[in-house]
Design brief:
The protein has a domain at 1-69: Serine Threonine Protein Phosphatase 5, Tetratricopeptide repeat, CATH 1.25.40.10. It has helices at 2-19, 23-36, 41-54, 57-70, 75-88, 91-104, 109-121, 125-138, 143-155, 159-172, 178-189, 193-222, 227-239, 243-256, 261-273, 277-290, 295-308, 311-324, 329-341, 345-359. It is mostly helical.
Length: 362
Amino acid sequence: MAAQRRAAEHFSAGNAHLKLNRFDEAAAAYAQALAADSSFAPARRNLAAAYARQGRLAAAAREYEQALAARPDHVDTRFNLGLVCLRLGRYQEARETLEQVLSAAPGHAPAACALGELYLEENALDSAVQAFERTFAIDSTYARAYAQLGRVRMGQGRLDEAVDLLRQALARDPGMAEPYRWLGQIYLRQGKEEAGQTTLKIYEKVKPFAGEIHLFQERLRDDPGDAEAHYGLGYLYGRLGLYPKALSHYRRAVELYPGHVKAHNNMGNIYLRLSMLDKAVAAYQQSISSDSTYAAAYSNLGQAYLYQGRMAEAVVVLERALSIDPQRTSAHQGLVEAYRRLGERAKSEAHRQALRSLTGGS
């Protein structure tokens, strides 16, 4: 019992590290869990996942194989082994493993898409097309399959079809980078210089975020109830200005974890940018109700009240923000405006001076 308890503690620590994308620490914790209890199957599966995300693919394959030996019926483990084999270039093993997944779970869209990508690596285009079309039949929202089939049609010179498929891919997941590059290249080949250059600029904007977006998406594939993964996607999509996509993930995050202070606050920020002031106010108030010491939400609520012309209420929450964080410049900025519009010039000037002191302005 003591060994199992230690294993469970290390496993929990590994999960915490994995949720923060700290893969080295996660792998070490899972290894400690297995040292305490070598039969702890979830720890072995998660150790394999951590190795895969570190790029230690051969080690990941070994752990997945051991996990499958203990649980041959575990479909997700078999699928993840197939992906690792694909990345290792072990195509025969990958094909057999992915086909086993689809035999056990015919509705497994990621496996169908991965099989298509394997066929692409082997230049078996007809088989790749069939696999991607099978993916659509399973899940018509699976963006990666649209992107990969668009790539195939682009290579075949069927540019109009490729454009349509790539647009569909990006409509479903605008956080993928490569479809923007392929689409931009097609536009240039079609003589659409402005559209091509614009799309390639979007590619350059999205590219730095695409890897992190993919990691969070992988986490949600493994655990759809991961509130922090939804929050992370909301944050990244928000940084990219993809507000509808960001809001959908923030909403899911607060459904799973109603007290997620930052998710409520960031939803408010998006609503504020979209001039949806009532929704912004409600989101900030929810953030504050979850944590009455969260200065950012008070300051942001004050800004929303300013936009609504609710000067007295703005003063109350902005002063509260400063009582928590006296150096919050946004709260001083808001109070400069609120007191000015209330006719209290001395107070407005006092906050202007405080703001200058904090920012080094003259």
